[in-house]
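Methods — Computational structure assignment.
A single polypeptide chain was analysed. Its primary sequence is given first, followed by the predicted tertiary structure written as structure tokens.
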Amino acid sequence: MLKNDGAVISYILPSKLKTMPDKGLIKILAKQRLDSCLQIVKEDYDMVYSLYLVKQIGIYAGGGTERLIESLRKLHRD
């Protein structure tokens, strides 16, 4: 994880959760997000598609499956 991961865990997350989150869980979730972004870099995607994928991964990370489905429906509806 990033050098300042302790600051994120000890300041931002508890303020939203009202409790100290599990450091192991945070580490795993951060690694999943980083691994998915690294996979995009490894593939031969153009920049527009890469940014699209990163955005969708961020939506999923922020809101889970339901939020991603909602976003994709809106994107393809417009």
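Note: The first helix runs from residue 5 to 17.
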